[in-house]
Amino acid sequence: MDPLPAAPVPVKAASPETDAAGSGSEGGLPLVTVITPCLEAARTLPETLTSVARARQILRQAGEDLEHLVIDGGSRDGTQRLLERHADRHPFCRWQTDIGGGPYAAMNVGLRLARGHYSHVLNADDLLLDPGAYAAFLLQARRREAALLLASIGYFRRPDRWLRARWMVPSPPRDPALWHQRLRSGLHYPHPGFLAETALYRATGFDERYSLSADYKLMQTLLLRPELADRVQICSDPLVAMAEGGATSGWRAILRGRRQLAAINRELGIVAPPWQRYWGKLRLRLGPRPAPIPLPDCPGEEGWRR
């Protein structure tokens, strides 16, 4: 459970071959599948697509590959035209549309389709903060045969382009029993910074009964498995920039989510009060903040909106 340094992989100039299917790490399979659920995301999705494409370019230089699956809920705002153009230029990106059932249903569709050794859910208004560090994290985790990966994240609010808060992921105790005790007492991690071996991710899946908290249940279920305790890797540097807001941010959603968390905690034997998760998020956003960090320029490809 040692932390991984987020050392960037040097970026070389792109070549026409960098968008062909890569050799991958396991018989031509990608190292990672990035799954992006989306609905009416034409305004924010270009940055997400571009940040993932940059990470893929870096992994290709290291002899690995990345696939990007975008699962659309039936957008009518130009998202599908955008995806058509992007997928035509970048065959590593595949997409499906008219997937009903909400974001967790879309994530489960992505997990069923994923071919990567690892899978990572990256929402359509979030982006990879440092594609080079992200690629390095994946490469080192694969060499160390890590099964579960945890990274810090930063928060920003559109149209502002500054990270105003950070959820820093500390290294877990070296004693797995102590770590599991803390998990059962309410310790949890940010889902945007969570990656797992696809086989584990898919077998667990998102419990769609919990429309606001299925990610919490999935992560806690995997992190509490004792046989995986020594196969966890940490990156303390923020690798993902998460846009504030979304389905779980309103007060009604918080109250409904609180009831879901209480049910999940009972199911998993977690003794923490359900409000603890939301209190931690509020404390991050309302408490003292470090100096803001500007987001990298990630405007998307020329011609996105033609």
What fold name stands as the CATH topology?
Spore Coat Polysaccharide Biosynthesis Protein SpsA, Chain A
Largest sheet: 9 strands, mixed
Mean pLDDT: 85
State the low-pLDDT regions, or none. Answer: 2-18, 302-306
* Percentage of residues assigned to helices: 25-40%
Could you state the order of secondary-structure elements as H and E? Answer: EHEHEHEEHEEEHEHHEHHE
The overall strand count is 11
CATH architecture term: Alpha-Beta Complex
CATH class: Alpha Beta
Count up the helices. 9
CATH level-four homologous superfamily name:
Spore Coat Polysaccharide Biosynthesis Protein SpsA, Chain A
Q: Given the C-alpha coordinates, what overall shape results?
A: globular
**CA-to-CA gap between the ends?**
47 Å
Q: How much β-strand is present in the residues?
A: 15-25%
Structural class: alpha/beta
Number of domains: 1
Radius of gyration: 18 Å
Can you walk through the features of this model?
The model is unreliable at 2-18 and 302-306 (pLDDT under 50). The strands form two sheets. Strands 1, 2, 3, 4, 5, 6, 8, 9 and 10 form a nine-stranded mixed beta sheet that branches. A two-stranded antiparallel ribbon has the order 7-11. It has one domain: Spore Coat Polysaccharide Biosynthesis Protein SpsA, Chain A. Helix 2 links the parallel strand 2 (66-72) and strand 3. The N and C termini lie far apart (47 Å). Helix content is 35%, strand content 18%. It is α/β, with parallel strands linked by helices. The relative contact order is 0.17. Helix 1 (45-61) packs across helix 4 (131-143).
